[in-house]
Amino acid sequence: MLTSEQISPDKLHSDYAASFTLTLGRVIKIEQEAGQVIFTCDNGKLAVSKARAGAVRIRLFADAAPDEEINMKTTPAIVEGESGAGAAETELLVADIGLAYLVETDEITIEVVKEDGSLRFKDSSGRIWARNPMMAWNEKKSAIALFRATENVHYYGLGEKTGFLDKRGERYEMWNSDNFSPHVPEIEALYQSIPFLIVNEPECSYGIFLDNPGKSVFDMRTSSEAFTVQADTTGLDYYVIPGPQLKDVVMRYTALTGRIQLPPQWSIGYHQSRYSYMDQDEVMEMARTFREKEIPCDVIHLDIHYMNEYRVFTFDPARFPDPKAMIEELKTMGIRIVPIVDPGVKLDPDYRVYQEGTDSDLFCLKPDGSPFVGPVWPGPSVFPDFSDAKAREWWGDLHRFFTDMGIEGIWNDMNEPSVFNENKTIDPDTLHRYDGNPATHAEIHNLYGMLMSKATAEGMTRNLNGRRPFVLSRAGYAGIQRYAAVWTGDNRSFWEHMALAMPMVLNLGLSGVSFSGPDIGGFGHHTTGELLARWTQMGALFPFCRNHSMLETVRQEPWSFGPEVENICREYISLRYSLMPLLYSLFRESAETGMPIIRPLLLEYPEDPNVANLCDQFLLGDQILAAPVYRPDTFHRVVYLPEGNWFDYKTGEKREGGRHFMAHAPLDTLPLYVKEGAIIPRTAPALSAEFERPSELFLDIYTPENGEGAFDLYDDDGATFAYKDKAYNLYRLRVEGTEGTVKFTVHPEWTGYGEGWKRWTLTFKHLPFAGYLQDFGKEAADRDELETLAEGWHFDSAARELTVVLNQPLEDVELVVKARA
Ligand code: GLC
Fold first, then answer.
1. pLDDT at site 692
2. Are 178 and 233 in the same domain?
3. Interval 317-329: pLDDT, tens
4. What is the CATH number of the domain that holds 740?
5. 180 with 117, same domain?
6. What 3-state class would DSSP assign to 325?
7. Atom of ligand 1 nearest to the CA of 489
8. Is 598 left (phi over 0), alpha (psi -120 to 50) or beta?
9. Domain check: are 638 and 735 in the same one?
10. Is 340 in the pocket of ligand 1 (CB under 6 A)?
11. 724 and 792 together in one domain
12. Extended beta strands in 334-461, E state
């Protein structure tokens, strides 16, 4: 515990008083190579190159001599490929305009001032995106770049950070840290480091991605007219990512650093975890209780106690005498096991994994050639060098141990890596092979966790015979989304941490990491029934949905607090399962475009000043708005609905947007609203996402009175990579309302998956008029009759709902609803 001694006058000093006095000086020579221009200056070099998706890359080589060769190799954050960073084939156009050079790329023109190498980034109309008037460094080779900002700027992104959505006035460090103290606003670094800042200026949005996996700092605090990015080692290597819209920035950034892989559908289901379910009997009991109580669940996690004295790739023979049989039995119940795997390998000469890694020289080494040894759960441990392809392959192959038992998902923890020593991680001078470009741990610390998850995901894929693996990771760097889902580490059962999860997960989504979520109910400390109920309501709509809690905290499975809380948990977890077609379509959209699955309102309503820092509401896709209650004993809250009309999901009440109002939210109610024009696909709730796939689809159409709506509905087998060979269905759904007529169309964009839904029930909700279906089937007299009809429709005048049944796979369909004369 800290006391006031910490702030005694002689202890106060600023680490950042270090001045950056060294600068590039004048440009003395320019050289052009394919896709890049190199400016040699008095005191170093500056490379300007074209990158993927309209971005430009700026690389500073501080102190480089004029004849020094420069290395333009990128980090593993950048997606490899032909149009990857620095790999552009075409020459860039360079013009000398007197005081500066102009370098033209597809989207951005870069102005390099001859006097001092300062930079401006413009588009073809002359609009200035970003201004970087200062780049400097010091003797320790720590380098800084300053960018101008206006007083109306807002900042987003930066991955997993505490604080609010808008990062104005904040300062953060990028250094993957296992921080078990409560996550509060002044914590500058957590487990993930995504050095990607979105700068939202009134004129346009752009992104700055600082591709430096060592320690870096983003400072939006020191000046209100500028922000700085600073890297401790290896200099500056940054990308300017153009907008003009926020969505463009996210799309382009995820083209550069990659997008999520479509996960197996079971991993989008509900996960139950605890540190730890201690033995096989307890796990089976857990599974049986879920099924008895009819609470949907797809996954039970095994925390560290399943291992034999915390040796990775082992099971404790006494606690888990027959894991294979357990896994088989669980599968018949529709439940999968996801075991934890940490990077620390117990230093034990009699242990196979330690022996193999030592014999093949796959662990991280100190400068004297001895392995780095540090304590973690198993005691003194060694650490695989995941920056080495050979070590990654070996590690990946070790996962056969799990896949042979029928395991398809792995939970990577402690991979910052966390070490119980003074540095809290691997010593900074430890050497990494880094695929042929040796680097110290200080230089590439933030890559460790991501490369572990890459090794895991690739190894699992090799061993799963065409089935998709699931990997969950605590640590990560830009690009982690390509390999793993992310949870936000050791939060606490505090209401404040429930509230914090919203901006944190929303900014992770804007930073490319769209498959993420917190420990529902809170990890440390003791939850209450009320907190669990509220957190489950919110978490049920988050991309990653896992309840997890720590040793010796009160139990927090959904039934731990009596029937009221249990019913609420069941209701909202079931809601998640009934919305699976919607969720899965959003995962596919994210895999294709990088769009987050849950979104801050500002992504969809960038012009609305009310949402620039709205942290306690979010959108699921662009159709459903959630406004969770995150305070105890609170049954009302203010909700802001953006422009347009909205319908209360539970009561159907219509509300006009563009205003705030007071929502009533008793404990069993999560305020949820659906946009007019929305098309919500759902099924009956299943208990298991993979093993019970409903054949009937419901489409709830929130009929627009005068307007339109659209949704891309996606489906495939949810389990294999067959979708990559076109075994999927994609339907473009569209609804259009004009006075007295509503038109709904289905256009099958692709139908390559034969096992799709067999029966479709469409409901035009909130019809603005008494309607009938033109030219279609037979009219049912009542709803019951409709259920038995092969095809038919029914108008419920009280609810103003018109229901239509289609008993066939969907083909091109056009339905027109007319007002009765
Ligand atoms: C770390 C993880 C936590 C896990 C625990 C034991 O604290 O963040 O989720 O339960 O280690 O493995």
1. 81
2. yes
3. 999 999 999 999 9
4. 2.60.40.1180
5. yes
6. helix
7. 8
8. beta
9. no
10. yes
11. yes
12. 336-341, 345-346, 374-376, 379-382, 409-412, 431-432, 439-440
Q: End of a domain among 242, 270, 298?
A: 242
pTM greater than 0.85 (yes/no): yes
Residue 474 Cβ contacting ligand 1 at under 6 Å: yes
pLDDT in tens, 144-161: 999 999 999 999 999 999
Q: How confident is the model at residue 86 (pLDDT cuts 50, 70, 90)?
A: very low
Domain span including residue 109 = 22-242
Residue 13 has pLDDT above 70, yes or no: no
CATH assignment at residue 156: 2.60.40.1760
Whether residue 476 contacts residue 484, with contact meaning beta carbons closer than 8 Å, is answered with: yes
DSSP result, 752-807:
--TT--SEEEEEEET-SS-EEETT-SEE-SSHHHHHH-SEEEEEETTTTEEEEEE-
pLDDT of residue 778: 85
Taking Cα atoms as reference points, which of 542, 621, 615, 540 lies closest to residue 586?
Answer: 621
Question: Ligand 1 within 6 A of 275 CB?
Answer: yes
Tell me, in angstroms, the distance from the centre of ligand 1 to residue 548's CA.
9
Best residue among 338, 497, 523 to mutate for probing ligand 1's pocket (most ligand atoms within 8 Å of CB) is 523
pLDDT for res 11: 57
DSSP state letters, 86-144: T---SPPEEEE-SSEEEEE-SS-EEEEETTT--EEEE-TT--EEEEE-EEEE-TT--EE
- How remote is the CA of residue 343 from the centroid of ligand 1, in Å? 13
The pLDDT confidence band at residue 382, using thresholds 50, 70 and 90, is very high
**15 CB contacts (<8 Å, ≥6 apart)?**
none
> Could you report the per-residue pLDDT of 470-498, keeping only the tens digit for each?
999 999 999 999 999 999 999 999 999 99
Would the CB of 490 count as within 6 Å of ligand 1?
A: yes
Q: How confident is the model at residue 14 (pLDDT cuts 50, 70, 90)?
A: very low
Same domain, 707 and 647: no
Taking the C-alpha atoms of residue 540 and residue 557, their distance in angstroms, rounded to an integer, is 14
Q: What is the pLDDT of residue 453?
A: 98
Pick from 178, 413, 497, 553 the residue to mutate for probing ligand 1's pocket: most ligand atoms within 8 Å of its CB. 413
**Cα 289 to averaged position of ligand 1 atoms, centre (Å):** 24
Q: Is the shortest distance between the CB of 489 and ligand 1 below 6 Å? A: yes
Tell me which of 613, 639, 672 is where a domain ends: 672
Q: Whose CA is nearest to atom 7 of ligand 1?
A: 490
* CB of 304 shorter than 6 A to ligand 1: yes
| Model pLDDT for residues 699-718, shown as the tens digit of each residue | 999 999 999 999 999 999 99
Determine the atom of ligand 1 nearest the C-alpha atom of 551. 10
Contact (Cβ atoms closer than 8 angstroms) between residue 715 and residue 756: yes
d(CA 574, CA 692): 13
In a domain, 440, yes or no: no
Choose one of 307, 338, 340, 492 to mutate for the ligand 1 pocket test, by most ligand atoms within 8 angstroms of C-beta.
Answer: 340
**What's the CA gap between 108 and 125, in Å, rounded?**
10
Distance CA 381, CA 348 (A): 8
Closest CA to 428 of 444, 445, 447, 442: 442
The answer, yes or no, to whether any atom of ligand 1 lies below 6 A from the CB of 178, is no
**Residue environment code for 173-198, b if the CB has 16+ CB neighbours within 10 A, otherwise e:** bbbbbbbeebbeeebbbbbbbbbbbb
Ligand 1 atom nearest the C-alpha of 519 is: 9
DSSP state of 724: G
First-to-last alpha carbon distance for the chain, in angstroms, is 76
Residues 6 or more apart in contact with residue 406 via CB below 8 angstroms: 324, 327, 328, 331
> Does the pLDDT value for residue 124 go beyond 60?
yes
Among 752, 714, 755, smallest CA distance to 733 is for: 714
